[in-house]
């Protein structure tokens, strides 16, 4: 009985985490270069139950073999939050300092915390003429040095690197970081005057949120039934007549 309470509660906690992830995806649907997150749920080990003294007779009729009842789940948890790196749609802006990547790769930024990587190619010019992000991080060129606006063929001079699946970790503000050096993309496809939109589909995200809420409510009902049954066991079954 108590195990059932914990099992239902673990499902509710996992769905709350999944709801937060879906809500964050929806909140960033207009964030340039945003990559949606997906929760990966894992189940705790299952128990295989038997009913003793109620199975077929044992050898020579002595004792009874346990009768199998079935598997009992013990709950779930969010094992990890994976990032979907699927290509987002490209939107033309006509702005000279907007760049969009088609295919694999990330722009490289120089930040106070070290190199960071992004798909958000909405850049501007600082007071010294350097190409920077909205947060002021310098954009690096193929020579590993900051790019200046007065240089020719900016799109061809941008440093673009790629990583194996799972090689990057989200940091926020469309930034990723990695402890390993990325592999330079020799011929990246960069579109000047365009930006990559978030790869979040609003309809799918809304359906995911509804599904999560329905699953949460189902676990809540199970928890209530378990609680009511436990109350009857304590207050009625155990009552001395």
Tell me about this structure.
- The protein is α+β, with helices and mostly antiparallel strands.
- It has two domains: 2-84 and 213-237, no CATH class; 90-196, no CATH class.
- Helices cover 27% and strands 29% of the residues.
- The chain has three helices and 17 strands.
- It has helices spanning 2-27, 154-157, 202-237; strands at residues 37-43, 47-51, 67-72, 76-83, 90-92, 99-102, 106-111, 114-118, 124-125, 131-132, 138-139, 160-162, 169-172, 175-177, 183-184, 189-192, 194-196.
- The strands form six sheets. Strands 7, 8, 11, 12, 13, 14 and 15 form a seven-stranded antiparallel sheet that branches. It has a two-stranded antiparallel ribbon with strand order 1-4.
- Strand 9 (124-125) and strand 10 (131-132) form a beta hairpin.
- The longest helix has 36 residues, at 202-237.
- The chain is elongated and about 85 Å long.
Task: Sum this structure up briefly.
27% of the residues lie in helices and 29% in strands.
Radius of gyration: 28 Å
Structural class: alpha+beta
Envelope shape: elongated
Give the distance, in angstroms, between the N- and C-terminal Cα atoms.
Answer: 24 Å
For the record, the count of structural domains works out to 2
Number of distinct helices: 3
Low-confidence stretches: none
Q: Helix-strand pattern, N to C?
A: HEEEEEEEEEEEHEEEEEEH
What is the number of beta strands?
Answer: 17
Mean pLDDT metric:
88
Helix-residue proportion: 25-40%
Largest sheet: 7 strands, antiparallel
**Beta fraction:** 25-35%
């Amino acid at each position: 009985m108590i195990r059932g309470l914990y099992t239902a509660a673990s499902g509710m906690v996992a769905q709350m985490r999944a709801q937060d992830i879906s809500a964050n995806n929806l909140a960033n649907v207009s964030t340039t270069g945003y990559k949606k997150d997906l929760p990966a749920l894992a189940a705790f080990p299952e128990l295989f139950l038997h009913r003793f003294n109620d199975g077929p007779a044992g050898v020579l009729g002595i004792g009874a073999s346990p009768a199998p009842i079935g598997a009992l789940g013990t709950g779930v948890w969010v094992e990890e939050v994976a990032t979907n790196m699927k290509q987002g749609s490209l939107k033309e802006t006509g702005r000279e300092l907007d760049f969009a990547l088609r295919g694999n790769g990330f722009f490289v930024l120089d930040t106070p915390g070290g190199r960071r990587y992004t798909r958000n190619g909405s850049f501007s010019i600082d007071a010294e003429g350097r190409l920077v992000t909205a947060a002021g991080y310098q954009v690096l060129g193929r020579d590993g040095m900051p790019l200046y606006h007065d240089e020719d063929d900016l799109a061809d001079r941008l440093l673009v690197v790629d990583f194996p699946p799972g090689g990057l970790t989200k940091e926020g503000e469309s930034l990723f970081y990695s402890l390993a050096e990325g592999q330079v993309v020799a011929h990246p496809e960069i579109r000047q005057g365009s930006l990559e939109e978030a790869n979040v589909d609003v309809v799918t995200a809304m359906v995911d949120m509804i599904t999560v809420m329905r699953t949460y409510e189902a676990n809540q009902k199970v928890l209530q039934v378990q609680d009511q049954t436990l109350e009857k066991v304590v207050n009625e079954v155990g009552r001395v007549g």
